[in-house]
Amino acid sequence: MKLAGIHHVTAIASDPAANAAFYTEVLGLRLVKKTVNFDDPSTYHLYYGDDIGTPGTILTFFPWPNARQGTPGVGQVTGFAFQAPLGSLSFWRKHLESAGLAIADEGRRFGEEFIAIQDPDEFVVEFIETAEAASTPPARGTTIPPEYALRGFHGSTLSLEAQEKTGAILTQLMGAVLETSEGNRFRYTLGEGPARARVDLLCLPAGRWGTGGTGIVHHIAWRTPDDASQLTARNELVSAGLNVSPVIDRNYFHSIYYREPGGVLFEIATDPPGFAVDEPLDALGSKLMLPEWLETHRAVLEATLPPLK
Ligand code: ZN
After folding, report:
1. pLDDT given for residue 194 in this prediction
2. Residue 309: inside a domain, yes or no?
């Protein structure tokens, strides 16, 4: 199989209104789908992305107001990075500071400038300048001037006890290549072009294992073009001895899940059908969207879910 990069990243948040305000108003992403957690319909599932929620730009959250705070550590995706156009970091620094956020980290990594902040739930969010970012059009209607607007994911960092086994899954099964390394950070790339995923495996042999909860990534999904390629991928993973879920219909894509040897939950998600399957592109995210089997509960759900603004 040859996966085409990141499809989406899903994480656990606490307060849905704070989450939505941060990712739409401060980061300039579009809320492309407002729905509920199909396994816990009294809570939201919020999807952010570019104009249409192109795979590779999609960040999704389960906001659980009463969940406990997780501890970041080994066995988790401990950071995700957005791609920013060259020369835009001075804008972002001012913009983030004026929103009351402190720059938590900054520097150069593999020759690229980055800054990092923590979101309202203490997720590490990185902004990395790339020469290629400007070749992707900015999302329309964002609150951020188009020349500075974020252009989808740059990649993500996985914290692991050791990187070899995860690296082997990435290269031997998933179509990634080991590009380079810097200290204990090993960079793999998955897919091609500006939207390829940079998958950094960070080796922390003495690191503490993370625990789930708010502020923690739940899983990372990789992109495949269609159902047929997903089934091929599933067969190859099963043949390699991995425990893979059946195909699950997530309304906006179809998914399979497996845990990689380093402890991180991986998903492979199809590009189709996409977010326009149940509402027009112009209206994405404006209305609470429910799967058919929950429509009869709409009135109750709308009355219970907290407003986002
Ligand atoms: Zn997912």
Report:
1. 86
2. no
- 33-56 pLDDT tens trace: 999 998 899 999 999 999 999 999
Structure tokens at 217: 């990534």
Distance 32 CA to ligand 1 centre (A): 15
Domain that holds residue 224: 6-304
Q: Ligand 1 centroid vs 107 CA: distance in angstroms? A: 30
Q: Is the pTM of this model over 0.90?
A: yes
Ligand 1 geometric centre to CA of 257 (Å): 8
Whether residue 130 lies inside any domain: the answer is yes
Sign (positive or negative) of CA dihedral 263, 264, 270, 272:
positive
Report yes or no on 96 lying in a domain: yes
Strand order across the 40-49 sheet: 248-249, 253-259, 265-273, 216-224, 6-13, 58-63, 40-49, 30-37, 288-289
CATH of residue 50: 3.10.180.10
pLDDT at 212 over 80: yes
Distance 60 CA to ligand 1 centre (A): 8
Does 13 fall in a domain? yes
The domain tally of the chain equals: 1
Q: How far is the CA of 98 from the centre of ligand 1 (A)?
A: 32
Distance 146 CA to ligand 1 centre (A): 28
